[in-house]
Amino acid sequence: MRAVFIKDFGGNEKVQVGELPEPEPGRGEVRIAVKAGALNHLDIWVRKGRPGLELKKAHVLGSDAAGVVDKIGEGVTTLNVGDEVVVNPGVSCMTCEFCRRGDHSECPSFKLLGFQLEGMYAEKVLVPACNLGPKPKHLNWEEAAALNLSHITAWRMLFTRARFKAGETVLLHGIGGGVALAALQLVKLMGGEAIVTSSSDEKLARAKELGAAAGVNYKTSSDPGADVKKLTGGRGADIAIDSAGAATLPVSFAALRRGGRIVTCGVTSGPEAKINIQMLYWNHISFMGSTMGSHEDHRALLRAVSHTQLRPIMDRVFPLRDAAQALARMEAGEQFGKIALTV
Ligand SMILES: [Zn+2]
Questions:
Q1: pLDDT at site 50
Q2: How many Å lie between the centroid of ligand 1 and the Cα of residue 99?
Q3: Which of 44, 60, 167, 250 could disulfide-pair with 119, CB 3.0 to 4.6 Å?
Q4: Cα(36) to centroid(ligand 1), Å
Q5: Domain that holds residue 72
């Protein structure tokens, strides 16, 4: 079967498209005939190499996929061959205290498909049966693949961590990326207001077309945090959703109201930032981390998407053989929306 894999860490020149043996499902696993995959920044972190990640053999890239159940492993009773499914890429033990209370992404042995585990950019992939959800019927295969990692992450950040409520104002950094756009869609869906930031006026304009109330260009603004606060009439935003890290944290602190919540899920601008602890306690700020989501977050997301006919914002679709080109587009930050691969 054809697959996208790396044998060494490095740049896009390490990304190979070639033949690998077809995997056989073990106990509790299901084999999927993949119809489409979708890119995430995680693919680039994995390709470059992460501490603790060893390549013993060809490592298939990719965390997001949608496809058709092709073969059922022993003990699986919840799925049938031919079912159309999407993949929740977070794999947990399902038996520890955190898994049993439904916080699967807090499991001590939590791992991600495409990161520590074999990825999804292949014609056939193995996934634990409990990680599959029904494909929303109104989506095409590329949209269905694109819905998962970034939307689950945004879902958990907004609802489970920040406890977002209708009427609140949410600051979304780096609009154009998968998590920020997913959060924009969910904030609008649930009756909130979104203020977005970007270095591109074009991306800010497109975000407004999608329902953002206002945008701030952090390259041309002398004080983006103050500008966001001005846009809220001096009150400040309720929540900041951030995947950029070091560069945007001071902006979030300056832009929030007292009692505001900052939720972070990524470090595309760097992992280390200074925090003024006085600002944290004096302003009653909650500063939270979040990674992926639980199976319940995934199911709730799929139900909300089906009920509202929401479609993820798509950038471009590439054939599987052009995976390196697709990764280069994401790495350059040119995209607005999800980049997908047709398998
Ligand atoms: Zn667990």
A1: 85
A2: 4
A3: 60
A4: 29
A5: 2-147+312-342
Q: What is the CATH number of the domain that holds 83?
A: 3.90.180.10
How confident is the model over 19-29, as pLDDT tens digits? Answer: 999 999 999 99
Burial 240-273 (b: 16+ CB within 10 A, else e): bbbbbbebbbbbbbbbbbeebbbbbbbbbbeeee
Residues 13 and 134 in one domain: yes
Report the mean per-residue pLDDT for the chain. Answer: 96
How many angstroms separate the alpha carbon of residue 175 from the centre of ligand 1?
A: 33
DSSP state letters, 187-233: HHHTT-EEEEEES-HHHHHHHHHTT-SEEEETTT-S-HHHHHHHHTT
Task: Give the pLDDT band of residue 57 (cuts 50, 70, 90).
Answer: confident
Q: What is the C-alpha to C-alpha distance for residues 285 and 206, in angstroms, rounded to an integer?
A: 30
The total number of structural domains that make up the chain: 2
182 and 45 assigned to the same domain: no
CA–centroid distance, residue 115 to ligand 1 (Å): 18
153-171 tens-digit pLDDT: 999 999 999 999 999 999 9
177-186 mean pLDDT: 95
Give the Å distance between the CA of 291 and the centre of ligand 1.
14
Q: How far is the CA of 89 from the centre of ligand 1 (A)?
A: 15
**Cα-only R_g, the chain:** 20
Cα-to-centroid distance, 103 and ligand 1 (Å): 8
Strand-pairing partners, residue 117, are 113
CA of 94 from ligand 1 middle (Å) equals 5
112 and 241 together in one domain = no
* Ligand 1 center from residue 93 Cα (angstroms): 4
CA of 38 to the centre of ligand 1 (A): 26
